[in-house]
Amino acid sequence: MKLDVIKLDGGTAGSVELGDDVFGLEPRADILHRVVRWQRNKAQAGTHKVKTRSETSYSTKKIYRQKGTGGARHGDRNAPIFRKGGIYKGPTPRSHAHDLPKKFRKLGLKHALSAKMAAGELVVIETAAMDAPKTSALAKQVKELGWKRALIIDGAEVNENFAMAARNIEGLDVLPSVGANVYDILKRDTLVLTKAGVEALEARLK
């Protein structure tokens, strides 16, 4: 399939051929959900922690004698039954990551790209480069193009001046092709690929 290529100033720059095996699939929500869930679980810190009975600060002395009080039999105040005692089977630091096959992750990225294409939210630009890191100039161009929440994916490397200019623009992210991922693609309203980005992604997803 063909898609028109534009410049950052809004002018046209021909067209580009997009592979149906990467951009022309029927998007499946179940595949996208599984890959996003894998990404978010892997990123989760997992640092939640509670104090167990052995870590609370009460004395370990038996609070009263075993028999003759008419009350329940207790050891020390660290028992989970008491206020400020240790927590029984509470959360401890752990990794929330789980495995997902590489083939499935690659398939998820294809479906994310196809979903943006099907929704008409995919834009191809000629290049993402600037001679000087001018945030105001880039912000004006982005506003004129109507990009409010956009992700720009370049080729193997991102132009340093362009990345610096985009850094302070709210809602605009820039990634090299190797950093392209399902979660970042789906959470933005517009996906912008450079011509180098299209070639790099198609080569990566063969």
Automatic annotation (TrEMBL):
Keywords: Ribonucleoprotein, Ribosomal protein, RNA-binding, rRNA-binding. Residues 64-99 are annotated as: Disordered. One of its GO terms (cellular component) is ribosome. InterPro entries: Ribosomal_uL4 (IPR002136), Ribosomal_uL4-like (IPR013005), Ribosomal_uL4_dom_sf (IPR023574). NCBIfam families: rplD_bact (TIGR03953). The keyword RNA-binding applies. It comes from the Bacteria. One of the primary rRNA binding proteins, this protein initially binds near the 5'-end of the 23S rRNA. It is important during the early stages of 50S assembly. It makes multiple contacts with different domains of the 23S rRNA in the assembled 50S subunit and ribosome. The lineage of its organism: Bacteria, Pseudomonadati, Pseudomonadota, Alphaproteobacteria, Rhodobacterales. Part of the 50S ribosomal subunit. The keyword Ribonucleoprotein applies. This is Large ribosomal subunit protein uL4. Belongs to the universal ribosomal protein uL4 family.
